[in-house]
Automatic annotation (TrEMBL):
<comment type="similarity">
    <text>Belongs to the protein kinase superfamily. STE Ser/Thr protein kinase family. STE20 subfamily.</text>
</comment>
<dbReference type="InterPro" id="IPR051931">
    <property type="entry name" value="PAK3-like"/>
</dbReference>
<dbReference type="InterPro" id="IPR000719">
    <property type="entry name" value="Prot_kinase_dom"/>
</dbReference>
<dbReference type="Pfam" id="PF00069">
    <property type="entry name" value="Pkinase"/>
</dbReference>
<keyword id="KW-0067">ATP-binding</keyword>
<keyword id="KW-0418">Kinase</keyword>
<dbReference type="GO" id="GO:0004674">
    <property type="term" value="F:protein serine/threonine kinase activity"/>
</dbReference>
<dbReference type="GO" id="GO:0005524">
    <property type="term" value="F:ATP binding"/>
</dbReference>
<feature type="domain" description="Protein kinase">
    <location>
        <begin position="1"/>
        <end position="90"/>
    </location>
</feature>
<keyword id="KW-0547">Nucleotide-binding</keyword>
<dbReference type="InterPro" id="IPR008271">
    <property type="entry name" value="Ser/Thr_kinase_AS"/>
</dbReference>
<dbReference type="InterPro" id="IPR011009">
    <property type="entry name" value="Kinase-like_dom_sf"/>
</dbReference>
<keyword id="KW-0808">Transferase</keyword>
<protein>
    <recommendedName>
        <fullName>non-specific serine/threonine protein kinase</fullName>
        <ecNumber>2.7.11.1</ecNumber>
    </recommendedName>
</protein>
């Protein structure tokens, strides 16, 4: 969550948080990877509407085409949490 907090405090949305993009290093530190779909928010454009990401991890507002902000990354992270608890990929 610290990685997402850093991104969001700098007005960046990752938009592709999923288990494949969360890396566990040998020293047990966790890294967020693959910023290819990330986007910078501005005062002029504080929300996005584009349909981008990996479907199983997308927040409802992304799927439905409604304007969204950084909270979509939290939704995706929650899906990763479900995968972890169930010990199965979605």
């Amino acid at each position: 969550l610290q990685g997402l907090d850093f991104l969001h405090s700098n007005d960046v949305i990752h938009r592709d948080v999923k288990s494949d993009n969360i890396l566990l290093r040998t020293n047990s530190s966790v890294k967020l990877a693959d910023f290819g779909l990330s986007t910078q928010l501005t005062h002029e454009q504080s929300k996005r509407c584009s349909l981008t990401g990996t479907p199983w991890w997308m927040a409802p507002e992304v799927v439905t085409g409604h304007p969204y902000g950084p909270k979509v990354d939290i939704w995706s992270f929650g899906i990763v949490g479900i995968e972890t608890i169930e010990q199965e990929p979605l």
